[in-house]
Design goal:
Elements (H helix, E strand, L loop, with lengths): L2 E2 L7 E3 L2 E2 L11 H6 L1 H17 L11 E2 H14 L11 H14 L5 E6 L4 H10 L4 E5 L12 E6 L5 E7 L2 E9 L2 E6 L2 E6 H11 L6 E6 L1
Parallel strand pairs: 2-4
Antiparallel strand pairs: 1-9, 2-3, 5-12, 6-9, 6-12, 7-8, 9-10, 10-11
Helix pairs in contact: 2-4
Length: about 220
């Protein structure tokens, strides 16, 4: 049975069009464009939780967020909470620490925790969604053969229910906003995709490592 967030996910207004979450690709900062996917997922999560609890991030208006405001806030938060080291970006532990500092400073009553990839992450994602919290999923780099180009497939669901490959990623963070059977609904690059839990587990086992993949989940 599907489990999803209770309210509409974060939307950014870009050229008159509404996104599904933010995207590092829209930033005017080269380092954020290259490796800012983690801070984007963390910022979107904080915005969603702020709206859900009615406190924190007072500069964010209700409804779609103007792109200029979103980019300004993303840049400021990267400087304060989410340090990026090109070309590596940010690791899950540092991202989790920064997210906890942001939640504390904005008085948002949630606490972030990080765990490496294993079967334990699926019930935590589901529990978070039932408490109206997104989760952040880390899709790791290829390891030990870091030069390889293996990637996890992202799918779009067609009106008839079929899923078709639409993109792919490695060394990337996404926000998980829904779950149905063996599929996760995610936000990445300002768009909605789905990924297969089975394909994620196979990617970790065959092309990466548990410690390079994992979950940042939130509790009260």
């Amino acid at each position: 049975m599907p489990v999803c967030l209770k309210s509409e996910y974060v939307q950014v207004c870009k050229n008159g069009l509404l996104s599904y979450g933010g995207s590092q690709l829209w930033s005017d900062k080269p380092v954020i464009r290259k490796c800012g996917c983690g801070p984007v997922a963390a910022l979107d999560t904080a915005i969603y939780l702020s709206r859900a609890c009615g406190r924190g991030l007072e500069q964010i208006p209700d409804g779609p967020i103007p792109l200029s405001l979103y980019n300004s806030l993303l840049s400021r938060l990267c400087g304060k909470y989410f340090p990026l080291i090109p070309p590596f970006g940010i690791n899950p532990a540092v991202l989790c620490l920064g997210l906890n500092r942001l939640l504390h400073d904005e008085q948002i009553p949630r606490r972030a925790h990080v765990v490496p990839a294993s079967e334990k992450i699926w019930p935590r994602i589901e529990a978070g969604l039932r408490e109206d919290s997104p989760s952040l999923l880390a899709i790791g780099q290829n390891f030990p053969y870091v030069w390889q180009k293996n990637r996890l497939r992202f799918y779009r669901r067609l009106p008839d229910g079929r899923r078709v490959p639409a993109s792919s990623a490695k060394a990337h963070f996404v926000a998980v906003t829904g779950m149905e059977d063996d599929w996760l609904r995610i936000s990445s690059w300002g768009q909605a995709y789905e990924i297969s839990r089975l394909e994620f587990a196979a990617y970790v086992k065959e092309h990466s490592a548990n410690l390079l993949n994992g979950l940042i989940y939130l509790t009260y």
